[in-house]
């Protein structure tokens, strides 16, 4: 539903979203054990004069992820990746 509704686009309406502290476990975010999909958004301010390719290091994500920057797909990890639940994401 998130991709269909454009949640990955910079202009997406996030007014109904609530802030969370990252890194955290899902239990730390929701206060209970839950299994499902979560969408997170955050802003990064780069120093003036920054240019060229960068790297986004997300660490391990249990299980899968699809990652966008400014609405552009930059990487994804799924079950095709060995030990995907503990693979560090670097895009």
How would you characterize the overall build of this protein?
This protein is mostly beta strands and 91 residues long. 5% of the residues lie in helices and 20% in strands. A hairpin with a 2-residue loop joins strand 2 (65-69) and strand 3 (72-77). The longest helix is centred in the N-terminal third of the chain and has 5 residues, at 26-30.
Topology:
Blueprint lengths: L25 H5 L26 E4 L4 E5 L2 E6 L10 E3 L1
Antiparallel strand pairs: 1-4, 2-3
Instruction: Give average pLDDT, whole number.
Output: 88
What structural class do helix, strand and pairing data support?
mainly beta
- Give the strand order of the largest sheet, numbering strands 1, 2, ... along the chain: 1-4
* Count of beta strands: 4
Fraction of residues in β-strands: 15-25%
List the secondary-structure elements in sequence, H or E. HEEEE
Distance between the termini: 24 Å
Could you give a quick summary of the protein structure above?
With 91 residues, this protein is mainly beta. It contains one helix and four strands.
Based on the model shown, name its key terms.
single chain; 91 residues; mainly beta; 4 strands; globular
